[in-house]
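Protein modeling request. Please complete all fields; requests missing the sequence field cannot be processed.
Requester role: graduate student
Desired output: 3D structure, token encoding
Chains: 1
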Amino acid sequence: MSSPVPVYKLQAFPRHEPNALFYMTRLEKLVQEFKGIDKPHSHTFYLVMWIIKGSGTHTIDFKTYAIAPHQLYFLTPGQVHSWQLSADVEGFNLFFEANFFRSRFPNRLFQYPFFHSHQHQPLLEVASSAALFQDLFRYAWQEYDSQQPNRPEVFLSFVHLILETANRLYTERQTETDTNLFDRIRQYEELLEQQFLTVREVASYAEQMHLTPNYLNAICKKVLGKTASQLLHERLVIEAQRLLTHTAQSVKEIGFRLGFEDPSYFVRFFKKHTHQTPAEFRQSAA
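Delivered output (286 residues):
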């Protein structure tokens, strides 16, 4: 039977300072010290992972990526991930609470395409800028480890530099689409993340965004090639997969938790989007 997926707070990690809103560690040290960190888990904080060397796989919300040098991974609070890393892996893990970043940049986190998105890949390959990111992470690590005056302020500056540099590369690789349309997609995804369990009508989201449902649909199709309803349904499916994999709740209980009062309708909905029944998916994920 599935066991609940652990949800880690910053305080769970070795040598974490009691009141700090940020944490940094060498990846190889984390793997060595934190038993079970390779198993499926989620966090209450944001994570940026920099791979220097090594191989393996990194699974984030049921999508698996091949690990290679000069990769950046970005995780949002609540996302479930696990990994299988080679013995020679090296890198850095940088964690921070939302309030740490928002203290200086109140709205910026939701503007990064690699956070809070099930439509944008949480991975950035940066081979062409590897030396730059290596320097940024090395300087951030020195600052984290130094205990110098105003350390939180300086460390936040490094976090900001890393995210803004990554954002430039990430957006350069996007298609030539109006940035205002991307902003609308991000706004829609933010609303979905907050309300997908209770609000099932695209028209309700469009109204909150001061758009017509047809225009919201047109934006989604132009930017992502999907309808607004598809984005809503994909978010529901991800949550269903998380619950089927990481809880012992019955299919009926999960369907009810996701707002499906009719269990048979939940089974049909899930099968339509995954080509498996919930029971078949649970068995294959075991």
